[in-house]
Amino acid sequence: MTAPSHRCPAPIDQNISITILATLPATPKISTIGHDLIRQPVNEMAATFAEDQYGRKVDRCLSDTLLKFGGGMILGSVFSLVFFKRRAWPIIMGSGFGVGVAYNNCERSLNSAK
């Protein structure tokens, strides 16, 4: 018995393969309408409602107030422990300064022109 002979197929003409690739349709573009709104800053969001923009500003103000209040309280506590023999007034003063700065930032943000 003889072994079957394997023959390599004839090479494909390069011109044919190029024309086949040229006739394939282009990749369809994926719509990114929803993603564009997420990436834009709040000032440039014309497609959202004014109530949503106001809500985002208020949320940002509340989180800023909490951070500034906490930072002022921590800084006041450190000063109270290190310099002022554990008095309460540096903690109250630091917290008040933090809330005051946050209030100023919020007022400027909410009253800003678009």
Rg over C-alpha atoms, rounded to the nearest angstrom: 33 Å
The SS-based structural class is mainly alpha
General form: elongated
Counting DSSP E segments of at least 2 residues, the number of strands comes to 0
Oligomer: single chain
Extract low-pLDDT stretches: none
Distance between the termini: 89 Å
Rounded average pLDDT: 76
The fraction of residues assigned to DSSP E strands is: under 5%
> What is the chain-wise order of helices and strands?
HHHH
Helix content: 55-70%
The profile of the biggest β sheet is: none
How many helical stretches?
4
Throw out a few tags for this protein.
114 residues, mainly alpha
Condensed summary:
The protein is an all-alpha fold and 114 residues long.
Give a structural overview.
The protein has 114 residues and is mostly helical. It contains four helices and no strands. The protein has helices at 14-22, 33-39, 50-82, 89-110. The protein is elongated, with a radius of gyration of 33 Å. The mean pLDDT is 76.
Write the layout of secondary structure elements.
Elements: H1 14-22, H2 33-39, H3 50-82, H4 89-110
Helix pairs in contact: 3-4
